[in-house]
Amino acid sequence: MSSSLPPEEFWGFLRPYTGPVTDVEPASRGFSSDLTALVRCEKGPFFVKAMRNRPGGRRDSLVREALVNPAVMPVSPALLWHAENEDWIALGFEVAEGRRADFGPGSPDLPAVVDTLNRISSLDLPEVARDWPEARWDRFALDKAEADLFRGDGLLHTDINPSNLIIGQDDTWAVDWAWPTRGAAFIDVACLVIQLIAAGHTAQGAESWAARCQAWGNADPAAIDAFAAATFRMYRSRARRFPDASWLEDMAGAARAWAVHRGVGT
């Protein structure tokens, strides 16, 4: 196996779940894990996410993804096994056959993307997620009153992007529930707006797709305004911290275009 893949002892650890492994195809995206790959094996195939079993946010994201899976299976592949020892933690999912969504203007995937976000917003908030309040945008809000506009009891994916929406022949899946939270239901749709602008839509065009989402129609426009401004501040801050990450600058530009469109301070 490639030297970029986990060492031999890792595959021995997985063997009770996979049997002999015949091929490992790393995902093109999924940098938060030590392994994110399609694993073809005797008992599979499986989509496997794994990392070193060390305290911290990366491990916590895998634990959270395992805990939320029963609640999101209507729109996400099922978790088939969860393995853990002193050195490693790994999740094995059913494989979602398909391709990443195309968010570009005129894409035939956009109705399915909107439908998937509507399906996400219709999910019941599982009890485990009540202790996962969304707070990542809070420090970019102007004050506590604005941050309070992001509160709610919606189950949020929070990483809506083309790689995490898989278009299959008969269905569409939202994958990589690495950091689900509880918050205002419009937040996932707002994340889609930013991604659509980054993919080439005008802000008005992106919002026309958002308007097809129930959570958007139910949202307070003032909350959307506050979120648009906070999102720009967030991406601007990250782009300045990591100037070599050109994608952050692209996202900051998209967020700025949206904030300007909504007439909110940047």
From TrEMBL:
Taxonomic superkingdom: Bacteria
InterPro entries: Kinase-like_dom_sf
Protein name listed in UniProt: Phosphotransferase
Organism of provenance: Streptomyces endocoffeicus
